[in-house]
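REQUEST ID: PR-0412
SUBMITTED BY: lab tech R.K.
PRIORITY: routine
TASK: structure prediction, single protein chain
INPUT:
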Amino acid sequence: MAALLRIVSKQRRIHVALLLSPRSVLRWHARLIARKWTYPSRRPGRPPRPEALRQLVVHLAQENPGWGYRRIHGELLGLGRKVAASTVWSILKQAGIDPSPQRTNGSWATFLKAQASAIVATDLFHIDTVFLRRWFVLFFINHGTRRVYIAGITRHPTGPWITQQARNYLMDLGDHAESITFLIRDRGAYFTDSFDAVFQAIGVHVLPTLPRVPRMNAIAERWIGSCRREATDRILITGERHLRLVVSEYADHYNQHRSHRTLGQRPPDRLAEPEPPTATATATATETDTTRIHRRDRLGGLIHEYTQVA
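STATUS: complete
OUTPUT:
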């Protein structure tokens, strides 16, 4: 601008009204020089933490209430995440997660879930055949795995018969019987002292339910309802052999295929198996997908089971 003003004569230069002052021009020039010779520098302090690391630390703390930041730090090192212990502590503090001694006092749901693997329930339910004969089914169900064991079927559930079925159940469990701590049963006359003695001999505490309180044995009652709705109430049972076939077939379906919300929509016998591969969603309804669906019928097509076939 100074060079351009030299072209204008002195007489006209007086009448030129500039919208800026010489001080502004000098200030702009100083900023230009400073911008040229100022090198970019990073912000002081440590670089920001990745979001994936923060989520992993919070996830480990929520799933393990007894772990402190030192324990979580060691687990991260085992997973190949090299971070400082102070970083883990800072992430937990920013997320509002209390120290481990204050997080170990879990809710009733957490407490009961931890105890479920040591609880077994038993009960009897009856089925009337097409000839109006009543049969009784004795079963055991594990609270932790939801696995059902059909102990026996009889028309007369006497004390000695049920006691013998209890012995057979423990023999089939083998070494796994030592994991049972509590047995829940109702107050029926067929559950005699000899029945309780079979379980008490291996250190199991037998807990009779209160009169007219079915919720104390809710998991067993729920299985009875599922078996009736999905199988026995939809079939005319002709006799013991037919009833044994229907109940055994449904128990296999319940243990091997039927999904359970408590188990993360997985069946009891497949808890240790890896999750099935995710099917591709690129194919249309008329095209052939890379993953085909196979249907297996149980009880004459009353129950359908679907599996993936590559």
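NOTES: Confidence is low (pLDDT under 50) at residues 282-288.
REVIEWED BY: pending
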